[in-house]
Amino acid sequence: MTVPEHRVSERRTGRRFDLRATTVTFGLAAIALVLVGWVVRMAFDVAQRRPVWVFVLVVGVVTAVLLSRSARSRRTAARAALCTTDALTAATATTLDALDVEREAPPTRSAPGEETSVAVVAADLGELDPYEFEEAIADLCRRDGCTDVEVVGGAGDLGADVLAVAPDGRRVVIQCKRYGDDNKVGSQDLQRFGGTCFTVHGADVAVLVTSSDFTAPAADYAEWCGIVCVNEERLRDWCEGGGPAPWEQPPPEENGTGSSERALW
Would you tell me which CATH number, out of the four given (3.40.190.10, 3.40.1350.10, 3.40.50.1400, 3.30.160.150), belongs to the domain 125-254? Predict the structure, then answer.
């Protein structure tokens, strides 16, 4: 009797299980997870105490990633990483200096005779809108040595358009009236300004500047209240440097002119 032959199937040889390699792999993975967790916790603590540092670091990392992607060679990527590291170091140092030491720059004062940023002399005063007119008067104050110059004109200004401190320390309060040639400043305008310039704004020198002129009753009221009036002619003299600033004028009673002219320096 013939017994059929059975083919012995060949065993597929595969990679043998290595317990040592597996143990080392899991150990390294555990160490890596611990390190990652420690780094994340430390970064979270730093983010709470120094958020500016975190922002700078994030910007540096994003910049490095973008540069590394766009680099065509390892040399370019290395140079980009080096530049990013240098920039990150400089930014961190600057941030530390800004957080630890607050330095205030001294205010810049314009020297007398310096040209104003608004060309009042060259331009027709009638062409300036009210806001530009106020800015021009503020520039003149800065040019002639005033400090703390501020344009405050607008709704609720209570009659003050420009506030400044004269070179001798007196508080200057200016109201600006950008009127046409046929529209003069009347006594009612002076009365409204006179009711707030001293009591509300605490003016040492109250000035009303206009691009037109003043009526005789307005000039008389200004003289009586001690308000300095600057009409279009006097304003151009002030702009061109031919006339002194309003706060440099003597009191009205010392001018020795007619009553309607004594308030117009």
Answer: 3.40.1350.10
